[in-house]
């Protein structure tokens, strides 16, 4: 009597994959631990189908992970896209360079440049921050008191000076 071919391909160290009547839909992305397990099981000699059934993931996910040979997924386009384009940022920077406009609040700058309301205060603040602009307190010789002082938008040239946050 000869041994069956299926018993020769499956290592005896792991239990057989669970047989379920209704397969669960796989997650959209595999976790780091799932990828690590896939690579480990593949090194032990298991097939893509066995690994996919055992870990309850798609065979294509197993194949992709084995081809990449990396347990850490890379997401190059993670995060939210910026509201303002590069051209909008250039326009914004030119606007705040003018001495009359650098005392405006972020909301006022947004309303002045985008009156239709497509850009908000936070988008303006973030775009200026990305370009090195920070809110600066007025000079000590200013006639305005500490409570009524208007903060200017200035480009941060000295990185050793701590940057103060806008409180108003």
What does this structure look like?
This is Transposase IS30-like HTH domain-containing protein. There is one protein chain. With about 170 residues, this protein is mainly alpha-helical. Among the domains are: about 15-70, Arc Repressor Mutant, subunit A (Orthogonal Bundle); about 80-135. It has seven helices and two strands. The chain has helices at about 5-10, 30-45, 50-55, 60-70, 85-95, 105-115, 120-130, and strands at about 135, 150-155. α2 (about 30-45) runs antiparallel to α3 (about 50-55) and α3 packs across α4. The termini are far apart. The mean pLDDT is about 75.
Ends distance = 86 Å
Low-confidence stretches: none
The class by helix and strand makeup works out as mainly alpha
How many DSSP H or I helices?
A: 7
Protein name: Transposase IS30-like HTH domain-containing protein
InterPro entries: Homeodomain-like_sf (IPR009057)
Organism: Xylona heveae (strain CBS 132557 / TC161)
Biased composition (Polar residues): 66-75, 159-168
List keywords for this structure.
168 residues, mainly alpha, Arc Repressor Mutant, subunit A, Homeodomain-like_sf, Transposase IS30-like HTH domain-containing protein
Topology:
Elements: H1 5-9, H2 32-43, H3 48-55, H4 59-68, H5 86-97, H6 106-113, H7 121-130, E1 133-136, E2 152-155
Antiparallel strand pairs: 1-2
Organism: Xylona heveae (strain CBS 132557 / TC161)
Biased composition (Low complexity): 1-11
Protein name: Transposase IS30-like HTH domain-containing protein
In short, what is this structure?
With 168 residues, the chain is mainly alpha-helical. Helices cover 39% and strands 5% of the residues.
